[in-house]
Structures are given as C-alpha cells and as structure tokens.
Write a structure and sequence with these properties.
Structural class: alpha+beta
Oligomer: single chain
Strand order of the largest sheet: 4-5-8-7-6
Distance between the termini: 33 Å
Largest sheet: 5 strands, mixed
Strand content: 15-25%
Helix content: 25-40%
Number of domains: 2
Low-confidence stretches: 1-5
Radius of gyration: 21 Å
Mean pLDDT: 94
Number of strands: 13
C-alpha cells in the first residue's frame, strides 16, 4: 500500500494476469443517499447506514436519471445513457428490506445481504451495466464497480441475459472497502425455476422499484435441490435439518433440500408485514396462482417450501414471538389454499439442475 499526499492507494482486486484494480482512500461520495431515497419516495425505514442498501439506492437513482445524466455529468457521459429511465428493480434481500420494516435495522427479521440484486429489461441491460461501471466517476469512489477477466468472460457468454461485475459491498471500521461479485439479470430470474418479470417493469414505481411482493415470494421459494440420504447426519451437525423437505414420492436414497435460513427469514418478513389482499402492499394470491397454474413443477416447489415454514415453528421462535408466528403461518396457509394442487408425483428432479448448487454452510 502506497501513501501519497494524504491518500492511500488500496488494491481492491488483483486479476489472474496481474492487473490490479486500485482505489484511493479515503473513499469519496458527492451524493446524499437519504435525500435520494426521499426523491424516489422510498420508505424512510430503509436502513441506509447499511452499505449495500446505500449503494442500491444510489444505483437506482442513477438508473431512473439515465436520460439526463449526460447533462448533469458531461465529463463522464458524453452521450445520453438511455432515452428512457431504466426500470432497474430490486429483488432478493434488498427488495425485502425495501418492503419490510421488520427486515431493517434492529427489526426481528433483519439480516445481512452480500450484495444488491437487480433485474432490468433485456433491451436496457447493457446500458445499466455500463452505467454501474461509471458510478464512481459520477457519484464518488464509494460506489466503484469494475469488470474482471472472469466477469468479462461471463458477460460474453451470457450477453443479453445476465451481466456480472465486481463491486464494493461494504466498508470496514478502518475505512477499507470489501468487494463482491454482482449478477445483473435481464427479463427473467432463471434459476431452479424461471420467474418472468417483464410485467413488473411497467409498474415499477408502484412496487417501490422492486419486482413486487408476489414475485419476491416466488423467487425465494423456487430454491430446491437434492442430496444423498447419507448427508442427513452432516446436515444435522450443521444445524440445517430444517431444510429437509417432506416429499415421500422422491427416490428413497436421496433427500430434498429447500430454502436457506436467510430466505426463510425474508419470506417471514414479507408475510409478517403484508396482509393477503388485492390492494397496494398486500399479497395478491391470484397473481401467484396465475403464474403457478402455467407451471405445475414450480407450483410443487413453492408449496413444499411454504409448507415447510408452517411446520417449522421451532425455527421461527428463534426470531419471533408467538403472535408474530401466528400471523405469518395464517397468511401462508391462506396462500397455500390458492396454489394449484399437483397430482403428479416425481421421483427425480423436476427442477432445473443446470444451475450452480448452493453449498451447505
């Protein structure tokens, strides 16, 4: 590390060919995230002292301001970034923090998130990707992102569907940045099952710049995989027995594994903070049923994961009181009544296996 004129040169990452991605400390910021949050009419309970959410709000503001950034920052953007605002939508843990007060700050279901997940329309994917790579030149080095050799290879392979970049995701107490790899999805969230988001881009402001409560539930409950039955002892030793799903029709030498604790927490936050209904900030069961009616395999995965939460009251007691648990279970059971019944029985994976399998930790 070289100290020069009161600043420190800090290496964020060294690539396989020796290329380094450096930044000067202390990090800079020339925007007020709290002001941007208010301009975007986002809830004041969103904890912007938590860095990933601060970064996410600044990125969201940049996306919405895309048509005028070349006028505001002519030294950075020599031409218009996009003719229209880019409807970048939060999903994952960041979307939960936007909609759920209980997932922020000292809320009972607050948790750390590794990064801020975004999905954008395919036709604007490359524009948003390039915009993120210029965040530091626009708003300060605190918001720096860059593309490594691996990122560029991934982007060439998945061009138009997904983009990958490396970004700052936290700052230590000594002012040193930490980094993570961020995936940017386009049009669909295609993991164990495909969740199509195209309709969500139309009403992005009504959904607080997220994919919406219903799609949030679907993307969380699509997580499923299987393991050899002899893995049970190891799973128990890791305290993750709660992830074993009950499905007696599956091949007997394997077990089915469902959502992680972080995803269960997020689902609980959604159901704790939002009633079932058809109004804004309510969980619309018909919207979920409409998706699952078209995909019975997806319906089975969703129902197994939701039923598992209902049956794991002891897990929920780690974070919630009995009244909160009762509200969550009651609302989940109401949704389960609207999910189509799946009569077909599978003894082999009915989900997409050609994706990276999460490691049991």
């Amino acid at each position: 590390m070289v100290i020069n004129s009161g600043s420190e040169k800090f290496t964020l990452y060294q690539d396989m060919d020796g290329t380094t991605y450096d930044i000067e400390l202390p990090l800079t910021s020339n925007v007020n995230p709290f002001k941007l949050r208010d301009e975007l009419h986002l809830p004041s309970y969103i904890d912007l002292n938590y860095y990933p959410m601060e970064w996410g709000v600044v990125a969201l503001y940049a996306a919405i301001s895309a048509p005028k950034l070349h006028e505001l920052y002519p030294n950075v953007f020599y031409k218009r970034v996009s003719k229209e605002p880019i409807p970048a939508l939060f999903f994952g843990g960041a979307a939960v923090k936007v909609h759920c007060q209980s997932a922020n700050g000292t809320g009972p279901l607050a948790r750390g998130i590794k990064d801020t997940d975004f999905i954008v329309p395919k036709k604007q994917g490359i524009d948003f990707y390039r915009l993120l790579l210029n965040m530091d030149r626009t708003f300060g080095t605190k918001y720096k992102s860059f593309a490594t050799k691996n990122d560029k290879r991934f982007n060439a392979w998945r061009y138009g569907e997904r983009y990958r970049l490396t970004t700052i995701n936290g700052i230590t107490s000594s002012g040193k940045p930490t980094i993570t790899v961020l995936d940017l999805f386009c049009d669909n969230i295609d993991l164990r099952h495909k969740v199509q988001i195209k309709e969500g881009f139309e009403g992005f402001k009504d959904n607080l710049y997220t994919i919406g409560l219903e799609h949030m539930i679907l993307t969380k409950t699509q997580l499923i995989t299987d393991l050899p039955k002899e893995s049970v002892d190891e799973i128990r030793s890791q305290g993750q027995e709660y992830r074993i799903l009950s499905y007696p029709f599956y091949q007997h030498d394997r077990i089915i594994i469902g959502m992680e604790e972080k995803d269960i927490k997020d689902i609980c936050a959604i159901f704790l903070d939002h009633p079932i209904g058809e109004s804004k900030e309510e969980i619309n069961t018909q919207k979920i049923r409409k998706v699952l009616d078209k995909d019975k395999k997806f319906a089975l995965t969703v129902s197994l994961n939701l039923k598992n939460i209902v049956e794991r009251e002891s897990l929920l007691k780690r974070w919630l009181n009995s009244g909160q648990i009762e509200v969550i279970i009651d609302r989940i059971q109401t949704l389960l009544e609207h999910i189509p019944c799946v009569d077909k029985k599978w003894d082999k994976p009915w989900w997409n296996t050609a994706v990276e399998t999460p490691i049991m930790e």
